[in-house]
């Protein structure tokens, strides 16, 4: 049985109080590298985001969902017109895609799938920590995770002292905290006290209330934090709404609206990270792709293989990295879905190894139980 | 005995309650019977709401998606109308009101704390539309009546409830050698079996293997909703022999002879009376009421009460409270946001939940802001009770609830929202002081921290006062 989150916390909680005193590993000689994960909940359709060009079968099966005006990537693949920033970065070797990829989950439940995309495991709900949290812990990077959501996402669990930012609906006067700060006495109040310290040290920009739905504002703040050499090294965004069973549409359908959100976040991160964008990797994460065939509601059902959208200066080059399985009936998973030929966890493991300066072999063992995940660092990233 | 005992095992004392001469007896005497639900408004049944669940899900899937396949705007509009018509936007709000009305006014608040505990032990996490239609009535109709029975009986009821079976996919679990499994080439879904072991009964401490999980899943095959064209997945739970794996099964070294539907009751009996299960659940109970890391010494009397009473929950609850009383003065327990809110509501007689008349719903337009208020607050403070992300429910550990944003949300609630929930007769400084005195030994020190605002009764002034008081260490924890 693997160590569950509960066990970890029972075993580790006394040391948490002390972890503020851990000697910080010196990265001063190294440029800080950022890893940003954008969770796309609901099942992102890789064939809408990065459509294969000129496939007659796809055209036939998706009559009502076919995109016109796709942006050009290469002779085989195009890009959804709402993903402009990726197209722009593609020209500069700062955007790339992994296609026909998924976590090794072939069921069709969002809940099981989302659980597995975050834990990185094979069996739903078996693990209680996220692969990113475990990766940070294994790399001894503590207190450097930033979640752009209110509950700490499962993805980041497993490492203590993450920060999270998701502004409350109104301004909170931190002077209230000053008034009671000294009341937190004794060892049993240490954890709260140190968290109050974190709040008090926040820049004013993080204290101002905003609409939590305003992703622009959230992305802007995340960029600011990530740019800071002593700030977080990991950020996690959460988007949902990719479950487009109906009126998925082509260029302007329901799926396009969601891709536009991704585009918005990446645009803001790119604009505001400045130089730090060169030392950043942005990767998307989803639970599964969608069926090839449109359904009766001109939407799509839950599928299997999808795509990972990537941006950032740590990418090796612009490319669609894929071992394309084809879309003929016998090439499809269960005769209906784009297959997955790349275990997407290999991409994430390699990305962590780049951003956390760790041996991918070591991470594979620490984070993914030694599962067979090839090191893709050479192919995908600057090393 | 410190006054914090009333918050440790309940929700503090309301302005018209006084400390009891014998707090331990006060608490223990609340556990023998099931208090009535006090909510004067509508309390729909699980079955009613399951029907609504069906109307919503199939109305969307079978009708709207097809009708508006070309028009995402028209589709969204029609879907919103269906939400209103089926109460998809409403029933969860009503359930929160029922729940918080109960914790605010119950004459047996200690019982209600155990109700919250068991609802979370047998958690239904956020999945499909269970939070909207099902988790509330499940906690009322499945968890609550079993709280005066044995733990084993509780596990039996939970395991065969529609809500849990839907939550953990047991309807999709087919014995590979069963009639339907063979015909359709289907096999088991292990979800429910795994959680029955890991979360509900013996925990990983029992050292079960993947094979144990599979064998238990075999035993559980056939317990599924009764499918028909009209009800689809919202049919009642029954035992479908044609889905059930044939043959003997072995779980944790015990052999269960091929015995169809009777296998499940036998294995649950063995799991629910397993010493490791007893220790695991006793530890969880002590963790909830005493401290994050209860010692063996704290847990031991609970295990003894369990063994002596053959798992009678009344006796177990009494033992837990006795231990909580015993260790009250030298242990600390941090309370998660919802319990904190319930305590503030009771101690300061806040205007939540909304009155039942105002919670009335016509199914003609979106629930209004007032009707949404309590659920909105719960979400904003990070603890919407039916929306745990995982089947292990909400954490009971301080470390999971202390993050910058989650603490800030408490400051936000107390300083910005709470003043608007203060009843008009309760705005004076004297009222706050009397509530503090009723609930805290160090009320004088607390009062001194808000002394500067003693003349203020505006929302802003109240916000300054409550913002400070509600977030003091002795209020965030006992």
Strand-helix topology:
The complex is a heterodimer of chains A (383) and B (478).
Chain A lengths: L4 H12 L17 E7 L5 H4 L6 H6 L9 E2 L5 E2 L4 H8 L3 E8 L7 H10 L11 H8 L6 E3 L15 E2 L10 H7 L8 H11 L3 H4 L7 H13 L6 E6 L14 H20 L6 E7 L19 E6 L8 E2 L20 E2 H12 L4 H9 L8 H4 L3
Parallel strand pairs in A: 1-7, 1-8, 4-10, 4-11, 5-6, 5-7
Antiparallel strand pairs in A: 2-3, 4-9, 8-9
Helix pairs in contact in A: 6-13, 10-11, 12-13
Chain B lengths: L4 H4 L14 H6 L17 H22 L4 H15 L4 H15 L3 H13 L8 H4 L1 H9 L7 H9 L2 H6 L11 H6 L6 H10 L9 H11 L2 E3 L11 E3 L9 E3 L2 E3 L5 H11 L2 H15 L6 H13 L4 H14 L10 H11 L8 H4 L9 H12 L17 H4 L2 H14 L11 H11 L3 H7 L9 H11 L3 H4 L2
Antiparallel strand pairs in B: 1-2, 3-4
Helix pairs in contact in B: 3-4, 5-18, 5-20, 9-14, 12-13, 15-16, 15-17, 16-17, 22-25, 23-24
Description:
The complex is a heterodimer of chains A (383) and B (478). Chain A is of the alpha/beta class. Chain A has helices at residues 5-16, 46-49, 56-61, 84-91, 110-119, 131-138, 175-181, 190-200, 204-207, 215-227, 254-273, 344-355, 360-368, 377-380; strands at residues 34-40, 71-72, 78-79, 95-102, 145-147, 163-164, 234-239, 280-286, 306-311, 320-321, 342-343. Chain A has a single domain (29-169, 226-330, 338-380), classed as Alkaline Phosphatase, subunit A (3-Layer(aba) Sandwich). In chain A, strands 1, 4, 5, 6, 7, 8, 9, 10 and 11 form a nine-stranded mixed beta sheet that branches. A two-stranded antiparallel sheet of chain A has the order 2-3. In chain A, α6 packs across α13 and α10 (215-227) packs parallel to α11. Mean pLDDT of chain A is 85; it is low at 1-29. In chain B, the strands form two sheets. Chain B has a two-stranded antiparallel ribbon with strand order 1-2. Chain B has a two-stranded antiparallel sheet with strand order 3-4. Chain B has three domains: 46-149, no CATH class; 162-272, no CATH class; 337-476, no CATH class. Helices cover 55% and strands 3% of the residues of chain B. With 478 residues, chain B is mostly helical. The mean pLDDT of chain B is 95. The longest helix of chain B has 22 residues, at 46-67. The interface between A and B is large, with 62 and 55 residues.
């Amino acid at each position: 049985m693997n160590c569950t989150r509960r066990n970890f916390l029972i075993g580790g909680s006394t040391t948490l109080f002390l972890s503020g005193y851990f000697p910080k590993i010196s990265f001063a000689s190294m440029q800080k590298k950022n890893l940003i994960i954008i969770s796309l909940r609901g099942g992102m359709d890789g064939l809408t985001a990065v459509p294969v060009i000129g496939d007659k079968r796809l055209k036939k099966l998706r009559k009502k969902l076919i995109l016109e005006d796709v942006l050009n990537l290469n002779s085989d693949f195009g890009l959804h017109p709402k993903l402009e920033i990726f197209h722009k970065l593609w020209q500069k070797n700062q955007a790339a895609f992994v296609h026909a990829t998924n976590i090794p989950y072939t069921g069709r439940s969002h809940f099981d799938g989302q659980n597995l995309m975050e834990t990185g495991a094979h069996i739903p709900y078996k693990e209680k920590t996220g692969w990113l949290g475990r990766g940070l812990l294994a790399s001894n990077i503590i207190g450097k995770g930033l979640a752009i959501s209110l509950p700490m996402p499962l993805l980041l669990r497993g490492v203590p002292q993450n920060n999270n930012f998701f502004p409350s609906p109104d301004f909170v006067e931190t002077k209230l905290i000053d008034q009671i700060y000294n009341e937190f006495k004794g060892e049993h109040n240490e954890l709260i006290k140190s968290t109050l310290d974190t709040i008090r040290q926040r820049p004013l920009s993080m204290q101002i209330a905003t609409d939590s739905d305003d992703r622009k504002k959230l992305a802007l703040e995340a960029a600011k934090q990530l740019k800071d050499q002593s700030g977080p090294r990991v950020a996690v965004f959460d988007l949902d709404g990719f479950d487009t069973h109906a009126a998925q549409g082509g260029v302007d359908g329901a799926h396009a609206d969601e891709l536009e959100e991704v585009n918005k976040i990446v645009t803001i991160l790119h604009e505001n990270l400045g130089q730090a964008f060169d030392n950043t990797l942005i990767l998307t994460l989803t639970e599964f792709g969608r069926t090839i065939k449109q359904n009766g509601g001109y939407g799509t059902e839950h599928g299997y293989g999808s795509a990972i959208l990537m941006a950032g200066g740590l990418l090796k080059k612009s490319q669609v990295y894929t071992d394309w399985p084809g879309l003929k009936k016998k090439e499809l998973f269960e005769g209906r879905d784009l297959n997955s030929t790349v275990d997407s966890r290999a991409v994430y493991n390699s990305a962590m190894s780049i951003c956390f300066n760790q041996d991918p072999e070591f991470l594979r063992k620490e984070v993914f139980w030694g599962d067979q995940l090839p090191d893709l660092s050479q192919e995908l990233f600057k090393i | 005995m410190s006054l914090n005992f009333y918050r440790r095992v309940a929700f503090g004392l309301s302005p018209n309650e006084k400390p009891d001469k014998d707090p331990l007896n006060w608490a223990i005497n609340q556990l023998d019977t099931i208090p009535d639900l006090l909510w004067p408004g509508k309390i729909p049944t699980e079955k009613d709401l399951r029907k609504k669940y069906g109307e919503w899900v199939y109305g969307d899937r079978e009708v709207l998606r097809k009708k508006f396949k070309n028009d995402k705007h028209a589709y969204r509009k029609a879907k919103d109308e269906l939400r209103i018509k089926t109460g998809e936007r409403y029933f969860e709000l009503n359930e929160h009101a029922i729940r918080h009305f109960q914790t605010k006014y119950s004459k047996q608040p200690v019982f209600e704390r155990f109700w919250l505990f068991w609802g979370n032990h047998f958690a239904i996490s956020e999945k499909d539309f269970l939070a909207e239609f099902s988790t509330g009535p499940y906690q009322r109709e499945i968890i609550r009546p079993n709280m005066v029975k044995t733990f084993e009986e509780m596990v039996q009821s939970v395991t065969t409830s529609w809500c849990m079976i839907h939550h953990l996919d047991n309807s999709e679990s087919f014995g590979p050698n069963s009639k339907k499994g063979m015909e359709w080439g289907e096999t088991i879904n292990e979800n429910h079996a795994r959680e029955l072991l890991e979360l509900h009964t013996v925990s990983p401490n029992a050292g079960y293997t993947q094979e144990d999980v599979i064998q238990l899943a075999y035993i559980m095959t056939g317990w599924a909703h009764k499918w028909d064209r009209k009800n689809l997945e919202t049919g009642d739970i029954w035992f479908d022999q044609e889905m059930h794996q044939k043959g003997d099964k072995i779980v944790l070294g015990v052999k269960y002879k091929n015995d169809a539907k009777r296998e499940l009751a036998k294995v649950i009996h063995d799991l629910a009376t397993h010493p490791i299960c007893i220790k695991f659940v006793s530890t969880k109970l002590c963790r909830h009421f005493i401290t994050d890391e209860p010692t063996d010494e704290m847990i031991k009397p609970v295990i003894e009460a369990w063994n002596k009473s053959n798992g009678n929950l009344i006796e177990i609850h009494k033992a837990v409270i006795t231990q909580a009383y015993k260790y009250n003065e030298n242990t600390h327990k941090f309370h998660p946001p919802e319990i904190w809110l319930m305590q503030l509501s009771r101690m300061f007689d806040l205007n939540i939940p909304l009155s039942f008349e105002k919670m009335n719903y016509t199914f003609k337009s979106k629930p209004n802001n007032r009707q949404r208020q309590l659920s909105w607050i719960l979400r904003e403070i990070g603890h919407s009770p039916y929306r745990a992300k995982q089947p292990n429910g909400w954490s009971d550990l301080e470390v999971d609830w202390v993050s910058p944003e989650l603490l800030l949300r408490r400051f936000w609630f107390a300083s910005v929202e709470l003043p608007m929930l203060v009843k008009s007769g309760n705005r004076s400084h004297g009222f706050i002081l009397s509530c503090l005195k009723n609930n805290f030994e160090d009320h004088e020190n607390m009062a001194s921290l808000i002394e500067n605002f003693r003349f203020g009764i505006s929302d802003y002034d109240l916000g300054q006062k409550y913002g400070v008081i509600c977030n003091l260490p002795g209020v965030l924890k006992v």
